[in-house]
Design a protein that fits this description.
By secondary structure, this protein is an alpha+beta fold. 44% of the residues lie in helices and 19% in strands. It contains 14 helices and ten strands. It is elongated.
Length: 383
């Protein structure tokens, strides 16, 4: 059932409104969040989403710190928190049991919005999606986050659009979960997975070609190669051939792949791909761009504090991860729209300061338009 937006919304600081503006159309298309029982929701989905965006945007490091802000900061209490206030129990109950389906819908819709707005850095390379996993330190009580004896870790498996610098699909597993199966879940037909040596699997190379998923995968230097055709080389490229990769009778590919070898700063790289349409130099560039997902993970952890967990259940951790990606996508669209730039901590800090300054002005001199409407309505009723 399509969402029905509340007719009267609390007015937020103009800069915060600009940040979340892309959500308006997205929210209209997702399924409404409704109470599962007889009790009405104490937090609407918009309340939950706005609170989680504030958590990541304002540099909070715990759920309790966020709750304190929503209860004690005048602007956050009046314009971000639920109309009747927020209770710690209600917030954590919502995070751990509600909104996951809606957040997935918001992420999907917002990613499409970002891909329609942000320019492509290398359109000639097609749709490149880097895939990688990142470990999250878990508490010992998180029994589901199995990693190794005495250590608990969860893992996010994520796709990252390299041409436009935005995250896409995400999956959450226990820390020791393998990464190869997630290529087919994250990369769509016609897209190119850009992946490191941990994803090398010759049966997968065959399967991906059958499914129409392209790949640029770094492989081990000692991978056996049966050459079908050699290509010309030069510059940084010292090897370019169409081959069967692997050991015959054991793990050799059934479909030919292209293997490119190149050297940068004295270091050799071997890459297998089914992108026969690109030059060897373009293959090398595509793999070089894979490093951008590592940069993203570092930025995400350091500046949005996504891995300061406010939940312990798989459901709640996934809610937090999705909210963090949504916040990043909103920042990516905002920075491009306002400054024609990529996301940077400088612009995020500027945005934080703007929101605080505008919040101070609103709390000092202006009245909530919803409150004005209610007051005027009451006055008319008396007359």
């Amino acid at each position: 059932m399509p969402r029905t937006l509340e007719p009267c919304k609390k007015r937020k600081a103009p800069s915060f409104q600009k940040l979340i503006a892309p959500l308006k159309k997205v929210l209209e298309r997702i399924t409404s969040l409704v109470s599962r029982g007889n009790r009405p929701l104490k937090m609407t989905f918009e309340d939950q989403l706005n609170a989680l965006i504030l958590f990541h945007l304002e540099d909070h490091t715990s759920g309790r710190e966020l709750i304190q802000t929503l209860q004690e900061d005048e602007y956050a209490r009046e314009h971000i928190a639920p109309e009747k206030g927020i209770e710690k129990s209600s917030f954590f109950e919502a995070v751990n049991s509600r909104g996951l389906e809606q957040l997935m819908g918001v992420l999907e819709g917002l990613e499409k919005e970002a891909r329609g707005v942000l320019p492509k850095d290398h359109p000639e390379l097609g749709d490149l999606v880097a895939i990688d996993g990142s470990l999250i330190d878990a508490t010992f009580s998180m029994a589901w986050a199995d990693y190794r004896k005495g250590v608990k870790k969860a893992k996010v498996h994520m796709g990252f659009n390299l041409n436009q610098g935005v995250p896409s699909r995400i999956f959450l597993t226990k820390g020791k979960e393998g990464e190869r199966p997630f290529v087919g879940k994250i990369v769509a037909k016609g897209e190119t997975a850009v992946i490191d040596r941990g994803y090398q699997g010759h049966k997968n190379f065959d399967a991906w070609q059958t499914e129409g998923i392209h790949f640029v995968c770094r492989i081990r230097a000692d991978t056996q190669k049966e050459v079908i055709e050699l290509c010309e080389v030069g510059g940084i490229i010292f090897y370019d051939a169409i081959v069967y990769a692997g050991t015959p009778g054991i793990n050799r590919t059934e479909k030919p792949v292209r293997v490119v070898g190149y050297r940068v700063a004295g270091k050799e790289y071997w890459v297998a791909t089914d992108r026969f349409d690109l030059t060897a130099e373009q293959i090398a560039l595509a793999y070089k761009l894979r490093w951008n997902i590592e940069i993203f993970f570092g930025w995400w952890k350091r500046h949005l504090h996504v891995y300061h967990l406010i939940a312990r259940t798989p459901y709640g951790v996934m809610v937090q991860m999705l909210a963090g990606l949504i916040t990043y996508l909103l920042l990516a669209i905002y920075c491009h729209t306002e400054y024609a730039e990529k996301v940077s901590i400088r612009r995020v800090r500027e945005l934080r300061i703007k929101i605080k300054n505008e919040a101070g002005m609103m709390n000092g001199t202006e009245e909530d338009p919803c409150e004005t409407g209610r007051r005027q309505g009451a006055s008319h009723a008396k007359t």
